[in-house]
Design brief:
Elements (H helix, E strand, L loop, with lengths): L2 H11 L9 E5 L26 H10 L5 E5 L10 H11 L2 E6 L6 H8 L3 E7 L5 H8 L3 H17 L7 E5 L7 H11 L8 E4 L20 H11 L8 E3 L2 H4 L14 H4 E4 L4 E3 L10 E4 L5 H5 L2 H11 L7 H4 L10
Parallel strand pairs: 1-2, 1-8, 2-3, 3-4, 4-5, 5-6, 6-7
Antiparallel strand pairs: 8-9, 9-10
Helix pairs in contact: 2-3, 4-6
Length: about 325
């Protein structure tokens, strides 16, 4: 094992846990207007769908520190919530850092204006495909509309001088035969991007084995994505293009060959729309429930016996009780 990896492994083995999560991933809703081929939202085994209540929003505001990073995301489309704008306004009055992950279909002059006057400092658009026909085939949505809305967002941000939206990330999935889509997206959006904005490519995840990724090939490893970036640099402006490479990001000499302690249980949690608290964003179906905010406080859940037992198992790499952890691909994202 790389020496740095060994040091970080030792660090997490005895990692103290803060009184509250440093980050909360908040699911406004698990309804979605799209049906992506690589998502379980459309599957019959997916959990019951619903919307977050105002009571849940008030609970988080009253119980969490202002410095908590709140990522508005989930297995659905957050902006599909009928009270999206109202909830953003409430959260912005308390929390200093909000992130939003959206598919972009509900971005409009009205909603963009509300976002630009909120505490949303980073917005990620899961575009994934640039070709409208491919977008329709893989996501069952209107790709032309999504592209137009992202462009509108970029233009409107320039007009609102005092907005807090410092980073816009446009996700383009790395798949076999998707290279031209990525190149087209880079060429189209790069002239419009700000200094902190970027287009990002990563591999499709299986969500802990819940999704069968049909087009996921061995060629699309972290290092191969960097090679793709190197291949196009003479023909494409790649100054705003980033690729997933956790080996490089973590400063490792080579790929990790041994399972390490996952950082997730020590840093953040996921609050589902019904108030249940899940341990991980990979757990789209809510199988790793640590507690329920309708019955307990966040402090009680975060420091409670269920979470403590889960962390003990994670430190020991004891995954037998957690099938989703056995098949998870996110454990390598560990960093002090």
């Amino acid at each position: 094992m790389d020496s740095r990896a060994a040091d970080e492994q030792k660090y997490f083995a005895s990692l103290p846990v803060s009184q509250y999560p440093l980050q909360v991933n908040l699911e406004f809703s698990n309804f979605c207007n799209l049906q992506c081929a690589f998502c379980i939202n459309k599957e019959p085994f997916f959990r019951t769908k619903g919307f977050a209540s105002g009571t849940l929003i008030d609970t988080l505001i009253s119980q969490l520190p202002k410095t908590t990073i709140v990522v508005i995301c989930g297995t659905g489309e957050p902006m599909a919530h009928p009270k999206f704008s109202h909830y953003i306004s409430l959260l912005s009055k308390h929390f200093t850092q909000l992130y939003l992950i959206t598919n972009g279909h509900f971005l409009s002059e009205r909603t963009i204006n509300q976002i630009l006057h909120s505490n949303i400092c980073k917005l990620t658009v899961s575009l994934d495909y640039f070709n409208p026909a491919k977008y329709k085939q893989e996501k069952n949505g209107d790709g032309t509309r999504a592209i137009h809305n992202v462009e509108l967002l970029l233009h409107m941000r320039k007009q609102v001088k005092k907005n807090k939206l410092q980073t816009i990330q446009i996700n383009m999935l790395a798949q076999h035969n998707n290279e031209q889509d990525i190149i087209d997206a880079i060429n189209y959006f790069s002239p419009l991007l700000g200094p902190n904005d970027y287009i990002y490519s990563r591999n499709i995840k299986t969500l802990g084995g819940l999704v069968h990724v049909k087009k996921r090939g061995h060629s699309y490893t972290w290092t191969m994505l960097d090679q793709f970036k190197e291949q196009i640099k003479n023909d494409v402006d790649i100054s705003h293009y980033r690729t997933e490479n956790w080996i490089k990001y973590l400063g490792l000499k080579q790929s990790l060959s041994k399972r390490l302690v996952c950082r997730h249980p020590f840093i953040y949690c996921v609050v589902l729309y019904d108030g249940r608290v899940a341990a991980c964003c990979v757990d789209f179906n809510g199988s790793l429930i640590m507690g329920d905010l309708t019955k307990q406080t966040m402090k009680e859940i975060w420091n409670g016996p269920t979470y403590q037992s889960f962390r003990t198992d994670m430190r020991a790499i004891n995954l037998k009780k957690y099938p989703i952890c056995v098949h998870c691909e996110e454990w390598y994202k560990y960093k002090i």
